[in-house]
Amino acid sequence: MREIDARGLSCPEPLMLAHDAIAKNELPAKILVDEGFQKTNIEKMAKTSGKKTTVKECGTHFEVVVE
Amino acid sequence: MEFLQSKKGLFIMGGLAGVVAAILAFSGNPTNMGICIACFIRDTAGAMQLHSASIVQYVRPEIIGMVLGSLIISLMTKEYRSTAGSSPMVRFVLGVIIMIGSLLFLGCPLRMVLRMAGGDLNAYVALVGFVLGVGTGVLALKKGFTLGRAHETQKVNGMVMPALLAGILVLSLVATTLFVTSTEGPGSLSAPIIVSLIGGLVFGAIAQKSRMCFAGSLRDVFLMKNFDLLSVIGGVFVVMLIYNAMTGGLNIGFADQAVAHTDHLWNLLGMYIVGFAAVLAGGCPLRQLILTGQGSSDAAVTVVGMFAGAAICHNWGLASATTGTTEAGRIAGIICIIVLFYIGFVGAKRK
Predict the structure, then answer these.
(1) In order along chain A (67 residues), what is the average pLDDT of each group of 10 residues?
(2) Which of A11, A51, B78, B105 is the most exposed place for a label (fewest CB within 10 A)?
(3) Within 10 Å of residue B315's Cβ, how many Cβ atoms?
């Protein structure tokens, strides 16, 4: 699975990276983010593109798997 | 909670923020300036005598309230994280530039929307510039612009800016001789301190929950055809439009607008600068305050840059007045645009 480490990046870079992965159909992809709103943004964007997401909270960051 | 993040929920939160802005305007803040991040940071900088423009000096509790409101709600929702280290000095420069652009136009993006809701057509000219600026910033992002990663840092770091601002507020109440307050002009017009502070706290909390961001709303439309954040701004606009219509504050036209000028080119370019810089900094002036409350030292450095920018603008005569822009201001504006292109397209690339 492709892993995208977007931790510590400013808005909207995490979302852009996730958006790219979906647009290029490099799925499933695991995206690491550390802010709650970034996690929510990716979930919403994936949902509007008809993709499924699963989120795991790992200590100080989130793992969002888009497939 | 899910409802709040839907377009309808976000619109309602924006509307509530608009109600706060309307209450602040009704309670005595300057016309079409119920709440303005750039103007109020500038007033606070003036009160601290970082500049001595006598009509714009007052410690605005709204600014302090917004940071503290964001801090409180992010502590409650466990979203508070002390982070730092994403190109702080570039962010400082972006803060200075955001202030120069704002004071060329006379308002931050939030005040631009309030001015639009008051019928000030100059603000619509500025909106064109703002959209173009955000568009240029988005292009830089697409070409690989990044300020790099922030990292988790000692907890105390994230508390520094909220503590400093709270200190300024307390000092302004107990040691009034330290600060200057305007006796005329916009700096002399204000809501009662308690109304301003509570208004700021509530506005900050709403902005934190809704991720309200004027640059981000357009950026998301450009980048992803996502209209979520734009619906928050829509809420603010609609409520202020209704308020202005009800209180006779609707004055459609270019001339005779409150704290505004009619230099179309620089209204447009001023907001172009702000839109471009805000996208590079990851958020508009309001969002920088909210992120500061959430523990971001990088956002706090941007806010410090805005304070410094306010001082530069008034000490060097860059800020516009109701009579129009100044030559020094126009030169500074051109320098800002060059620096932004350098940062956006040359200086900070993803490896």
Answers:
(1) 92 90 90 89 88 91 93
(2) B78
(3) 13
Q: Give rounded-to-5 percent helix, strand, coil for chain A.
A: 35, 30, 35
Torsion angle, CA of B2/B214/B248/B319, rounded to 10 degrees?
160
Side chain identity at residue B133, one-letter code = G
CB contact B261 to A (< 8 Å): no
- Rg of chain B over all Cα atoms, to the nearest angstrom: 18
Instruction: Flag if B151 and A37 touch (Cβ within 8 Å).
Output: no
Name residue, tokens 């499933």. Answer: A28
- Write out the DSSP string of B91-131: HHHHHHHHHHHHHHHTS-HHHHHHHHHTTBHHHHHHHHHHH
Nearest residue in chain B measured CA to CA from A43: B5
Mutation site for B-interface testing, chosen from A5, A9, A11 by largest number of B Cβ within 10 Å: A11
Is B188 in the A-facing interface, judged by CB distances under 8 Å? no
User: Of B350, B345, B347, B314, which Cα lies nearest the Cα of B138?
Assistant: B345
ipTM score of complex: 0.90
A59: contact with B, CB 8 A cutoff: no
